[in-house]
Amino acid sequence: MNNLKKTLVFCLLNIVAHSAFCQSNVEGIITDSHGNTIEGANVVFKNTDFFTVSNAQGFFSIKDVALGHYVLNISHIGFKSLQKPIEVGVENSSLLFQMEEDLLNLQTVVVTGTFEPRTLLESNTAVTSMNSETLKQLVPRGTADVLQNIPGTFADGSAGEVFTKVYTRGISASAEDDLGWYYVSLQEDGLPVSLVQHSYYSPDLFHRLDLTTNKVEAIRGGSASITALNAPGGIYNFISKGVSETFNGEIQLQSAIQGKGNLSHRADVTLGGPLGSNWFYNAGGHYRYDEGARNTDFTFSKGGQFKFNATKKHHRGYLKFYGKILDDYTNRWTGVAAVNWNDPKPAFGQDFNTTSLMMPAFSATIPDGRHIAEGATTSFDPSKGVHAKDLAFGFDILHDLGDRWSIRNNTKFSSKDANWQTSISNAYVSLNNPLAYFISGADFPIGEVVFRDTKSGLEMARLSNSGILGGNPIQYIGNGTLPNDGIMGTSTWFKDNKANEWMNQLTLRKQWENHDFNMGLSLGLSDTSLYTQGSFGYVTYEPNPKMLEVTLENPNEPILYLSDKNGVSNYGGLFYVNADAKVSQFATFLNDRWRVSDRLHLDFGLRIETINHKGSKDRYAPYSESGGVDGNPDTAYDNGVLASTGVQDLFNYNYSYVSYSAGINYRIQDEAAIFTRFSKGNKAPELNYYFNNFSNVPINKKGEIQNINQLEVGLKYNLKDFSFTSTAFWSELKNISVTNFEFDEADNSVFYTPNQSNTSRTIGLELESVYAPFENFLFRFNGVLQDAKASAWSVYDAAGSVDETDDSLQDFSGNQLPFNPNIMFHLSSEYQKNKVSAFFKWQFMGEREGNVANRFQLPAYSIFNLGAGYAFNKQLSVNLLVSNLFNSEGLANFFGANDFGANANGVNAQFIQDNPDASFVVVPVLPRATALKLNYVF
């Protein structure tokens, strides 16, 4: 028995010893082509569970690897993936790996616009990836400012951080007013920032870029038709920093000077690392204080956000919790007056770089038309701009079900609040125009009118307007005059928007040897409300406007107050919209990627989508009590408040459609591929269709679903010192609903013209390339050549009044599509060696038509950006960044004639012929900003 025990023990020891000797450790160091170590590279033994990440010294170690032959895969953003066969022997393996720079990130794995991760080279759609190093070269002045670096993307950030416009490939028609993201999806970590849009309520309100963003992935058209909720024009996905095996972080301090000496200060931070037991976290955010790019008498932006995620990794997948708290004040820049239709120049003493025709700060209390009988009021202070709040949290689960089945579910809840307190319109109104007085809401404001500075109380001007109804000019009484003999046609713009949202994407994936099949559900629910109120504001028309208290002081008559002490007039008499809506979105999708051979892949996807809009909108009428809200007939400014009548118009409409997309990718060789894709997408109306139209009439019909057809053919090539992608595209947009904002001087009413259904077509070529002619130096180029046409296009001409008897239709079919340049590009040179880095960038924006009549062109312009940096060591670096180095006065937008209530489409050949010297409103690009950044990495 003892011998048997000894034998068993001996055998057991042999087994243990043999097992130990049949394992080994694999260690290595990873560097780039210059010998610099690479931190954060993913090291994976293919078809095994062995995985690690290189540390700050580029070192990695994987222990207890069984002896045998393996394929080691090493990947890192910005470098070409490296696959090396290795043999693990009895002795520990010490290896050295050198990674080659991936100039265009063509071997970077992307997750946007696709149902399964794949590299850019393998993708059969036009995809661009921007990593964190590229993002650090920017002076972030808004999301659109970042996305203008994506080839083929038109991004207008001239208004600042919000109220921006982003679109691609001529899919733009409904994104040219105040819904600038109409066709595209702005996403964070794979889900939309917001589910709904309407006037002055776009997703850029709730998005800010900071150090918590790891990279940006952009899809232009193509597969967006089947991978995004109601956004066939493209996807812009900001992906947050994720799992880090070791504790690390970064702190960034920034100070900047903008425009005419305006200051901006900002602090960013991000931290990440393990929490123990396979838990990992990342958290960070920013805070900023910004005086603004142009001159105002208030702080333009202040606030920030906090973001976090916590991830639990296990052998079958992961569980991630994430969230965001945004609490931010900002504003948006309005237009500037210009003259000379052929070569626009600033007018009325204004300046394209520094002038901001916005109301100065004040604090007013205005009757709330929703609950006027209860004495409810709203507070208004234009220095607050838009106060955006977003509280969002969610979780993302990926689980391997076995037998090559997996399931992923990403869900998010959010509560949003956007409160606008700013001015809308800044047109010139002559003192000889009766509108200057009658817009106050007074019955007959004719006689001796007095204008006083609301801050000092001093009289600025006194005049008699007794002859204006007979066509005679005003007469000043005394020595004082108003600048430019006019006032600003502007309104207090109070909007209170709220939304509670839930969105979810569930994907079930099955992999076979030659097929990768995905199917799932996308769901979205939004409960949103909107209140809009507008009052007239008496403001001087000059580069630094002042509020005016206005009275009518006729002899032997009581003083009639045309404005309150803040200069606010016609309380709530210009705008009234009170509406709510519940939006539910449901989509089911499937996609199969078929590997025909090692080099040829096909995929086909189908999406069935249904959207329901259910809600109500108040009817309204002027408050009819004698003497107005306060009962005093001498305070004319509160006599015309628009208030709810208690009657509501209801709507409940469904929009259902089928979208599909098919693509082919063929690898010509290991570093080159060609692809083609055809997509048929659809765009359901946004809520502005109900909110902007149907004023005091039943909402008796649903909106039109726009149809989008797109074809693209591309080539991708990835060489050692030269990489490029080129994509030829054709896109067609049909059933475009077009309406114009109008003002009727006869009764001081604001209205929208009837919708017109139009069609556009765009063909073009997108290019993106990088060339490294010698060590430490490279050139980047991206741009687009395109031809955008208004194939079939009509505009409703209301002839300046609500009366339909003099209305007509104007046909502009065959004209160039407005705001789409034939050419736009970015060209940059970059240098980096040891501790020194520098770049110089040139952005060119070609000439664009200012409206569909093609009677005014926005001139081409160039913007140059410069940057230089020095790294004291691996932790501490400093960078100087200059945006718009030469203070370009490029014009980004056109709002039409310089008249209150005018719009771009009102400027046709006849108008210019009749008004050759008239002024008009343009929106210039943002002026120079010089920023100094200090970064500390640990």
SSE map:
Blueprint: H1 2-21, E1 23-32, E2 42-45, E3 51-53, E4 59-66, E5 68-75, E6 82-88, E7 93-99, E8 109-110, E9 118-119, E10 127-131, H2 132-135, H3 143-147, E11 153-156, E12 165-168, E13 184-188, E14 191-192, E15 213-220, H4 224-227, E16 234-240, E17 248-258, E18 262-276, E19 279-290, E20 301-314, E21 317-330, E22 336-339, E23 345-346, E24 364-367, E25 377-380, E26 385-402, E27 405-430, H5 435-438, E28 448-453, E29 459-464, E30 475-476, E31 486-511, E32 515-537, E33 548-552, E34 560-561, E35 568-569, E36 575-595, E37 600-622, E38 642-669, E39 672-683, H6 688-692, E40 706-718, E41 722-738, E42 741-744, E43 749-752, E44 756-774, E45 777-792, E46 794-797, E47 808-811, E48 823-833, E49 836-845, E50 848-849, E51 857-858, E52 861-871, E53 876-883, E54 891-897, H7 909-914, E55 920-924, E56 929-937
Parallel strand pairs: 1-7, 13-16
Antiparallel strand pairs: 1-4, 2-3, 2-5, 5-6, 8-9, 10-15, 11-12, 13-14, 15-16, 17-18, 17-56, 18-19, 19-20, 20-21, 21-26, 22-23, 22-55, 24-25, 26-27, 27-31, 28-29, 28-33, 29-30, 31-32, 32-35, 32-36, 33-34, 36-37, 37-38, 38-39, 39-40, 40-41, 41-44, 42-43, 44-45, 45-48, 46-47, 48-49, 49-52, 50-51, ...
